[in-house]
Specification:
It is an enzyme of class 2 (transferase). Keywords: Coiled coil, Methyltransferase, Mitochondrion, S-adenosyl-L-methionine, Transferase, Transit peptide, tRNA processing. It is found in: Mitochondrion. It is a single chain. The chain is an alpha/beta fold. Among the domains are: 68 residues, no CATH class; 187 residues, 3-Layer(aba) Sandwich (Alpha/beta knot). It is built from 14 helices and 8 strands. The strands form 2 sheets. The chain has a 6-stranded parallel sheet. Strands 7-8 form a two-stranded antiparallel ribbon. The radius of gyration is 47 Å and the shape is elongated. The relative contact order is 0.05.
Length: 415
Amino acid sequence: MQSANMLLKKIVRSSVLPFAAQHGMKKDLFPLSRTLSLSLCLKQDNSCSPSEKLDLDAWKKVMKSGLQQEVSETVSEHKELSSLAAAREILEMWRLAGRSVPENISEEQLKTFMECPSKSAKKKYLKYLHIKELYKKNDKRKMDEKRERRLEAQEQASEAAEAKRNSFLCVWANSMDRAYNWRVAQSMVFGQPLIFDMSYEKDMSIREVTNTVRQIVLSESCNRRSVDPFHIHFCNFEGDSLYHKEFVKHYREAWGKLLITVTDQCYTEVFPKDKLIYLTSDSPKVMKTFDHDKIYIVGSVVDRSIKTGLSLARAKRLGLETAALPLEKYLLWNTGAKNLTLDQMMRILLTLKDTGDWKKALEFVPKRKYCGFVSKPVHELKKTLNLMNTLKLGKRQEEVRKESAKNYSRKLMQK
């Protein structure tokens, strides 16, 4: 009997109590459970009081209410699913019609779309979702491209590492470096000096000094790989200057091993004045040939900071001879300044030193600065160029006159 009562209590708690709790009948249910537990004793013990009998009407109400709630929830779920399916069909039709509709939309976003009060609000919400989806796709595409670039860089790095590990290439590179260093070491004893004037730091900004040092590094590299290199001198070079800091950044440990001469003295104190020639584009004297017995000076100034007459004034104060490259003699120059970078000057001087050919040397001048090499006398070319400009100007004036006449006739017809 006790086991039957326990089983009946478990059934009541698992089935009846949740429905009774939803309808506020939890307090009245415990007497019912007690009545059910004692109903089995009525057959054996007739002395039980009539107040402990089962209330069947209350039991029926509880069971009916629970069944009705389950049916209503099922119906509401079916309605919601059907409305979501209809909304998805509408979105698919709009997408096929070419409207801004996202390709993937979640149930929450779909519910928000259905709750929009008007059609314009729905369109705006869909456009917002579409733009958001496009941004996500774009970010994903960028991440994929970045990943591909990183993989390509890793592959290139691995290939470069394999090439470096190749013993033949390593031996070749080491032998070439030794040959270059040997040539530069010989130039320090027997070579022609070339001076970089490092006294222009106060006349330049930090960015211009950085560009100057970068050009000098390229010049030194080009000189080291040449057949007959110059013996490079850095004159007026101070140890605590900005030049020194930038050179240390570029060369690092190799700065102290460079085969160049660095001094804080002026070039007039190291070399005789009659052998010095200051190369400047402001000089009235044009350089005709390369003199192997002279010592050429190049001002360490970038061509972006076009300071007219700065190097020429310094050379005149020191009483030095000056010279300019014959650019107009060999090149049909465009409008603009005739300043060149330091590495371009180094390549031109090295070519002149090796070959003495101006046409071959001036090939290192950027193509954008001139139209071509001079094949006729300069005065004839200037006449031809002026004639071409005059013809172009006259043709342009004729076109403007015809266009104004057309416009005037159109205005008369409109009136």
